[in-house]
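Design review, sub-item: ligand-bound model
Attendees: FS, YL, KQ
YL presented the inputs for the fe (ii) ion complex:
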Amino acid sequence: MKILFVGDIVGEPGRNTIFHGLYNIKKRENVDFCIANGENSARNGRGMSGVDARDILDAGVDVITMGNHVWSCPEFEEFADRLPVVRPANIGRGRPGRGFLVTGCKGVRIGVANVEGRAFIDLQGDDPFGAVDDVLEGMAAEGAAIRIIDFHGEATSEKKIAAIYADGRATAVIGTHTHVQTADETVLDGGLGFISDAGMTGIARESCIGMNFDGVYKRFALGKVARFEVQKTGTHELCGVVLTVDEATGKTLEIKRIKETVEV
Ligand SMILES: [Fe+2]
Ligand SMILES: [Fe+2]
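KQ shared the predicted structure:
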């Protein structure tokens, strides 16, 4: 089975990128199931509204994962329990939304989970390793042999440790949040597919991880509290990874990076 994981979809350009590009990539790569990170898919790049979620699902994504921007659109709480969306299991205890869900695809049970790291990140949650244990246990209890974790974190080291920690128990640990694709994709000895960061989807080349020059420059160079704005023009790019998974064992056989320009 082939599973495509799409890295952080940023703003309207990100949603346009999957609208125009996802179908062809899925077809070419024989993708059976698609997961995408939607924590920046709102128009302003923070959070995800119901319309954004619908755009992403309509483009061909099966399950959406989130991250530290999960609560930025208040509307998220209204649909978090109804749509196929997961949010970090270890933040916002008691608030709406699920840390993992199990769904079916071609007769196979697939679990998708979201955990947030604690290193250098603005919204810190409970112990991420305990959360990894919890979501793996929960997905196994619901009969999912395939168990994918979106580990949303800033530090490559924390994401790699989480991968080694989960090897033999999870199908893959896919890093998100930095919006920059790393070249360290690998399959660990226990059959866990890993990459430190899947990269972003939207306008990456002309922007600073999806945001335009002004706000980011003012914050770094002048120390001003400035609003970041999504870059609207430039090269639309889709980043992610394709996992080839043995559905009987739940182990990853191969992980391949995707990083390509999409005509919008
Ligand atoms: Fe992000
Ligand atoms: Fe993030």
